[in-house]
Design a protein that fits this description.
- The protein is built from one helix and eight strands, in the order E-E-E-E-E-H-E-E-E.
- The chain is mainly β and about 90 residues long.
- It has one domain (about 1-90).
- A five-stranded mixed beta sheet has the order 1-2-4-5-8. A three-stranded antiparallel beta sheet has the order 3-7-6, with no helix packed on it.
- A hairpin with a 2-residue loop joins strand 6 and strand 7 (about 80-85).
- The longest helix has 4 residues, at about 65.
- The model is unreliable at about 1-5 (pLDDT under 50).
Length: about 90
């Protein structure tokens, strides 16, 4: 995962780029819980299908409040929030 700061209008949020989503819950992503600021996080998903098309072409926003209620998992000593893609807001 690559992480960079990004300014969206008046928002300054961390953008997390996901290479491959988790197929749990019909499609979700695991985001390091330390990446969420007070407003949340922006998510880009770079995963492509066999034709080279992005499966999730948008940038998504997910609030910290919603993330606090999501399932957690530990991967390589990092606690991740498992966020269903269908619950993210398109920005």
């Amino acid at each position: 995962m690559a992480n960079v700061s990004k300014r969206e209008g008046s928002l300054c949020m961390i953008t997390v780029t996901i290479r491959k989503p988790l197929w749990k819950n019909g499609g979700s992503v695991g985001i390091d819980e330390r990446k969420f600021d007070n407003e949340g996080v922006l998510v880009k998903i770079d995963y492509k299908n066999k034709y080279g098309d992005k499966v999730y072409p948008h940038t998504y926003k997910f609030s910290k409040d919603k993330a606090d209620n999501c399932e957690k998992m530990v991967w390589k000593n990092t606690t991740l929030k498992v966020i269903p893609i269908r619950e993210m807001e398109i920005v």
